[in-house]
Specification:
By secondary structure, the chain is α/β, with parallel strands linked by helices. It has 7 helices and 7 strands, in the order H-E-E-H-E-H-E-H-E-H-E-H-E-H. The chain is globular and about 50 Å long.
Amino acid sequence: MSAIVCFVLVKMNVKGKHNLPKRGPYILAPNHIDDIDPFPLAGAVKKPITFLMAKDQSPIRWYKSWAPRSYGVLLVNRKNLQPSTIKAVHKQIQKKEIVCIFPEGTAIGKKLKKAKNGASFFAAHHEIPIVPVAISGTEKVFPALKRLKKANINIVFGNPIFTKKEDMKKLDELTKKTMNAISNMLPKEYR
């Protein structure tokens, strides 16, 4: 359904889809520009994705949260992380699901922000790959719609970053490697 909506509302340019593993589990680690980032991401992947979504932020309008809610979302209270949330993510990975964790954690502005180690933690703990994803253009969707135009959205899937249990001791390094990969795929004005 996201693919249809994206086709109608935006012009999508997707690159690097060959970098996606044929089946899960794996972690998608995209930059985060706007609350609607899950829409084009789900449309590009065309498989169910479990999105981690902040429970402790201001309410998101229904039209911006539809995609992640339609595919599956795990609400996370970032200020008071519960063991049940961690168990729920582990369960999705054990079910061989694709899990999307935005390393920046929040969608405020198009420039890259300081990343957290969540994607690295779950990937290393389960020895599954992280697929860095560069998203650009989503901040232009609603302004373009107001002018009855389609915004251009670019999604680039990078080479998977393979993890091992030993990476649990180097989560900061793994996160930095992921964010560098994202940065290298983004247009300059998004870095």
